[in-house]
Amino acid sequence: MMHLTQLPAQNRFRPSAIWMIVPAIGLLAFFFLWPVLQLLTLSIYDQNGALSGDNYARIVSTPLYLRVLTVTLRISAITACLSVLLGFPLAYWMAGLSPRARSRVLIFVLIPFWTSYLVKTFAWMLVMGRTGVINQIVGAAGGEPLSMLQGEGAVIVGMVHGMLPLAVLTMLPVVTSVDMRLLQASQTLGAHPAKGFWLTFVPLSLPGLTSAWLLTFITSLGFFIVPALLGGPQQTFLAQLIISQIQQLLNFAFASTLSVLLLGATFIAWLAYDRLFGMSSLSGGATVPRSQSNVLRLVGRKILSVCAAVSQMIASAAEWILPAGIMSRLAPMYCGLVLFFLAAPTLVVVPVAFTSSSFLDFPPAGYSLRWFDLYLNSPLWINATLNSFVIGFASAAIATIVGGLAALGLAKTDMRWKGAIFALMLSPMIVPRIVYGVGLMYLFAGLGLIGTRAGLIIGHVILALPFTFVTIAAVLKNYDWRLDQAAATLGAARLKVLARVTVPLTKGALIAAFLFAFITSFDELTLAIFVSGGIMTTLPKQMWDDMFLQLNPTIAAASVVVFALALLLLLVAERVGGKKTA
Amino acid sequence: MGECADKLQVRGIAKRYGEIDALLPTDLTISSGEFLTLLGPSGSGKTTLLQMICGLVPPSQGRVIIDGQDQTDTPVHKRDIGLVFQHYALFPHLTVAENIAFPLEMRGLRSADVRTKVNDALELVRLSELGTRFPRELSGGQQQRVALARCFVYQPSVILMDEPLGALDRKLREHLQVEIKQLHRKTGATIIYVTHDQEEALAMSDRICLMNQARVEQVASPRDIYARPETSFAARFIGTSNVLAGKAEGKEQGPSVRCGSRSFGTQAHRFVEGEDVALVVRPEAISLRGEGENRLKGRVIETIFGGADVSVLAEMEEYGTLICRVNATSTTPALGEVVEFSWPSSAAVVVRR
User: Fold this and answer.
1) Does A188 contact B93 at a Cβ distance shorter than 8 Å?
2) Percent above pLDDT 70 for chain A
3) Helices H, strands E: what count in chain B?
4) Which residues of chain A lie closer than 8 angstroms to B150, CB-CB?
5) Between the CA of residue B25 and those of B15, B210, B230, what are the distances in Å?
6) Dihedral over alpha carbons B15, B20, B23, B24 (to 10 degrees)
7) Cβ–Cβ gap A189/B106 under 8 Å
8) Which chain B residues are within 8 Å of A203, Cβ to Cβ?
9) Which of A381, B158, B195, B353 is the most exposed place for a label (fewest CB within 10 A)?
10) A171 to chain B, closest Cα gap in Å
11) How does residue B317 score in pLDDT terms, banded at 50, 70 and 90?
């Protein structure tokens, strides 16, 4: 099979295959790699343009920067741990469901995954604010109002809420691929179910757990929306410092230095991960352990056997105390709670948008459409919305075509550089967005692209490329290339084959890729902050500005628009794209 | 098989999934040291029965008694049974030795004892050199031997095997059949073996429990079930048979069955006159131009060389195709030749239709 399909493909398509990858490589090289690398050089010049290590000396000698770095690392690590811990039981439970039921539950993870961070964070402001949902309940119970915002707790809640879907989606393929019969086997060999779980299921899920930890940790490192809106000065993240260096102090060199610091932390995390577990476990599905060092393996087994013994004791005690019926319902009950935690805050936003009062109270005293009216009649909001649509469509179309061609080209070749190109295609997902934003701003300032639609479209194409590439590549992996060969033997020229056979057969993936690219662009705030130059506002940028200036129900109305659109597109993508998502 | 105490008793056990019966109420007794095979086509209920015995599936009704103790409600891990899975179910993250040590560690054995027992088990399946390997580094046959060692090492009261050789090719399967038989003899373990392969069942078992459509069709030794099937399903499923439908007949010239226009003599049978029955004659009982009391003429349509013997297929006028197996050294008839076949009445068994 391999030989039949690959040999002719190689001979026939090799020249054109490379041309298909060129646009993607060109875009990434010029608009992604180049600006990010430029940050490195920028950081070693002082403000007069002379080579110096002053910027780095400043970081080392100022306690503030080191403290911010520590806070960023600490909160990100806590977030990653909590996301993995809370998400693993959910993934385990989903793995035991029938494929149909699993894809139903998956929707409730995908919706929060694709919901804008702005909307999610805004929702937490409504829930945890001084007059928010929780304080309403506390007040009704006769308690003193709690002050929850402006603290580390609020930041961690908001960040875990943001990262949990990513953690679950990352570990799910690995957890699902673990052979459930091994659990049965451990029981027939005499292991208590709780013990068997720790001794077989957990170690086999480990690649998924660790890669989920790594991805959530790295994504958290670049966060600024949640700490800025839910935290206080003590919870300032590195990304916030970068923004203020640029927006308030216009100090590019120092902003670059901080970006390099963030990039460095990201790469160290990657390298440490590669050392411990190997990159290959990131690709998912692989449950076979690498030959790790014996010491590491023994320590791991010791830890697991302690966990196993403890959880067997707890489970045995629980069996004594709790009635038998409850035990089997614990898992679904827990998963229901987690899904509620994911969905509920966002749903609070919807009634607030329809309030008739001028305040953000929940539940609203009365209902009206006045805030939608205001939204629709405000040139500022409408302009921002239109911009978002135009930029979203343009960047999604370009990203789908460029990413699709690259996936096609890569699927048809067997070059030595395949792995490197694959890594390059995915790299915009790995480099923190804030770092990319700074680099792109510097590049665009020289090209006169600041504050233009074209500039934002280019940036969004880069961010969406990994998604479109992966979505289409996943479908092409199972594509039967003999169909293309059949079309060719029947007399179709190469472009005709593409138009009449390949594209129609991968239509679902193409539409899904387009929609995901659109949502990516429609939600995007980071680049907009840097590249819009205050002129070319998009919907997220407008929301962000308003959330700082003055909280008002118009933001809720805008949130409902963003949320409803993302939900609609997601459901359409699910429909046409089948199970190939994210 | 020294003592013949009942090791395992299954009483009226049944499983229903909604409207569908996976297993109708079934009784079965297995004595200590016995090798019993559950044989049947897929969907016959054999795996359901096995899973209820080991506790992975709770029965809808009935009891499971092991060593005189009612174990119906005992959870899997406390039941002291061993299960060899179809796809081995070796733990991929543990080495071969760690896999075999697993059940011993679950039973809290001292590590020195664990080590000796693991080494003994590895020796038993002749894998002493491979203890530090991971399962994925072994061949399919070696993996199955590890699974066997992991099961035999803790000497469970009953060992269940769920089509353990199903994933192996024919040569390896035959090799491992011998190995499992020898393990059985050496250890004196009580084994319940599930398979859909009738040759495997005939080769390995002390007794065969033949299952069909969620119930037991017949329980007997391999020899008995082959020579004296009780139903036409048993006759067709085990070995090759010529089956003629007919009605049981009177006793004037000894027991016989009327099939269409003719009547054939048979072994003594327990059916009353006029009852719907089937006549079963094994191909090797039929001879060409022989001396048997029952004779039929047919045109040879195919001859199949099988090494030691030759199968001759012939078209009978009234009774369809007949298959007869003759020694390869004798002369085989030519295609199209009309030959007379014959068999003694003592070789014809009457079964329920």
Assistant:
1) no
2) 93
3) 8, 20
4) 189
5) 8, 15, 20
6) 100
7) yes
8) 93
9) B353
10) 18
11) confident
User: In 3D, which of A513, A545, A550, A518 has the Cα closest to residue A532?
Assistant: A545
Residue A292 has a pLDDT of: 53
Q: Per-residue pLDDT for A7 more than 90? A: no
A525-560 pLDDT, tens digit per residue, is 999 988 888 778 899 999 888 888 878 888 888 888
Angle of helix A99-114 relative to helix A63-95, nearest 10 degrees, comes to 160
Structure tokens at A100: 């149909």
From chain A, pick out residues whose CB is under 8 angstroms from the CB of B77.
187-193, 196
Distance of CA A61 to the CA centre of its chain: 34
**pLDDT at site A227:** 92
Which is higher by pLDDT, A577 or B69?
Answer: B69
Contact A557, A474 (CB under 8 A): no
Helix, strand or coil, per DSSP, at residue A281: helix
Strand B256-259 to B242-249 pairing: antiparallel
Q: What is the mean pLDDT of residues A344-366?
A: 82
Q: What residue segments make up the domains of chain A, in order of their start? A: 1-33+369-582, 62-179+206-288+331-368
DSSP B344: -
Which of B51, B66, B83, B91 is the best substitution to test chain A (most A C-beta atoms within 10 A)?
B91
pLDDT, tens digit, for every residue of B30-43? 999 999 999 999 88
Mean pLDDT (whole number) for A200-219: 91
In CATH, which of 3.40.640.10, 1.10.3720.10, 3.10.290.10, 1.10.260.40 is domain A1-33+369-582? 1.10.3720.10
Q: Is residue A4 pLDDT above 80, yes or no? A: no
Q: Domains (ranges, CATH) in chain B?
A: 6-227 (3.40.50.300), 240-352 (2.40.50.140)
Give the pLDDT score at A281: 53
Pairwise CA distance, residues A25 & A469, whole Å: 12
Residues in chain A: 582
